[in-house]
Write a structure and sequence with these properties.
The chain has 383 residues and is of the alpha/beta class. The chain has 2 domains: 130 residues, Peroxisomal Thiolase, Chain A, domain 1; 219 residues, 3-Layer(aba) Sandwich (Peroxisomal Thiolase, Chain A, domain 1). It is built from 14 helices and 12 strands. The strands form 2 sheets. Strands 1, 2, 3, 4, 7, 8, 9, 10, 11 and 12 form a 10-stranded mixed sheet that branches. A hairpin with a 6-residue loop joins strand 11 and strand 12. Helix 4 crosses helix 14 and helix 7 packs across helix 12. It is globular. The model has no long low-confidence stretch (mean pLDDT 95).
Length: 383
């Protein structure tokens, strides 16, 4: 797929701890902003893909309420019940298959309306054995983090340094909900929640919505737009049962990245990728992602970090936006990573802009433990 799908516009409803607007309003805000940024009207859109969670939305078949503000009224609309980055995959596939030429992709999360997110996420656990023993998204994430920590003897300081890095980056991002630096000591002394995850290791829940407009190559030329090309993408899913997975590494992310690199023609990601936006649902998961994405060898992520490689002035800056460790819209954190990669490539990232970016990577993850399902996107400037 050499330059057959492009992103021509993005829009967001700013991430906040608790947004006062109704869900429909934040969805409309993001989708309308994306159409405006792309310079197209809703009438020109021939496909809409949404990504949402009925349980978080608080209603069954929530698209009956949310499709219209997402721009899908009387449109060809399809919803995925996976994290928002998977809506990009479906939108791109619709264009590649010739079904659509101009697709609006939107995802959202308003967890502040949910009485207990823990109870919601427990519904994703295996019902007969795991759900009744207290498996939640935090516990499951901690199990994978613990397995990685023990397998490669990762010290707590490395994980804490990821939090410090991302929170420091967020200070520069005027759109980040949590723009406050933390020290290594603050992270290491924060209360333990589920070993090895401390309170400051866990992304704070937040509300938000984001959208983007995908276009076929012919539509890009017709509109006269300067595109950001989706050069490659890949996705992969591990086994359903927790006991059958390899929790000390992100197997599906490794496979997804290989597929994306092959499609994009990338052979040396560390040399060819200028910036990466990783779905950092825990600092240990960001460390695992360095290895799965091929930035370093297995078990070498701590050394990669200590060498300064993923910092703003390193060889591949990771999460210059601050990532979800600075505010986590639960169901669309990965789609925000795609939007952030787009902003870096268009030079619109403002204070957290990385210079001379031509190729960017974005990563989205979903499922209970933040490792079962992963998607990777390679974005590139025109020319």
């Amino acid at each position: 797929m050499r330059s057959s799908v492009a992103i021509i516009g993005v829009g967001v409803s700013k991430i906040e701890k608790s947004k006062p607007q109704r869900l429909e309003e934040i969805i409309f805000e993001a989708s309308y902003a994306a159409l405006t940024d792309a310079g197209v009207s809703r009438d020109e859109i021939d496909g809409v893909v949404t990504a949402a969670c009925d349980e978080i939305d608080g209603r069954i078949i929530s698209s009956m309420l949310t499709a219209a503000p997402a721009g899908a009224y009387l449109k060809d609309e399809i919803k995925v019940t996976d994290e928002g980055s998977y809506a990009v995959i479906l939108g791109a596939l619709r264009i590649l298959s010739g079904v659509s030429n101009l697709v609006l992709v939107t995802s959202w999360s308003k967890s502040s309306d949910v009485p207990s997110l823990t109870n919601v996420t427990k519904m994703g656990a295996e019902p007969f054995f795991h759900r009744d023993v207290g498996i939640t998204h935090i516990v499951a994430t901690a199990i994978r983090a613990c397995s990685y920590k023990e397998k490669f003897q990762v010290d707590e300081e490395a994980a804490a340094s990821i939090v410090v890095k991302n929170r420091s980056n967020a200070v520069l991002n005027i759109s980040a909900p949590l723009r406050k630096e933390v020290s290594l000591e603050e992270v290491l002394s924060s209360p333990m929640v589920a070993f090895p995850l401390r309170r400051l290791h866990i992304p704070p829940e937040a509300d938000g919505a984001c959208s983007l407009v995908l276009a076929s190559k012919s539509k890009v030329r017709e509109l006269g737009k300067t595109p950001i090309w989706l050069k490659g993408f890949g996705w992969s899913t591990e086994e359903y049962s927790v006991g059958q997975r390899m929790p000390g590494e992100l197997v599906s992310l490794s496979q997804a990245s290989k597929n994306a690199y092959k499609m994009a023609g990338i052979s040396n990601p560390l040399k060819e990728i200028d910036v990466a936006e990783i779905h950092d649902i825990s600092p240990y998961h960001e460390l695992m992602a360095y290895e799965a994405l091929g930035f370093c060898s297995k078990g070498e992520a701590s050394k990669f970090l200590k060498a300064g490689e993923p910092y703003r002035d390193g060889s591949v800056p990771v999460n210059p936006s601050g990532g979800v460790l600075s505010g986590n819209p639960i169901f669309c954190g990965g789609l925000f990573r795609v939007v952030e990669a787009y902003l870096q490539l268009t030079g619109k990232a403002k204070n957290h802009q990385i210079s001379n970016v031509r190729t960017a990577l974005a990563h989205g993850t979903t499922a209970l433990d933040g490792g079962q399902e992963n998607a990777v996107f390679i974005l590139e400037k025109e020319g």
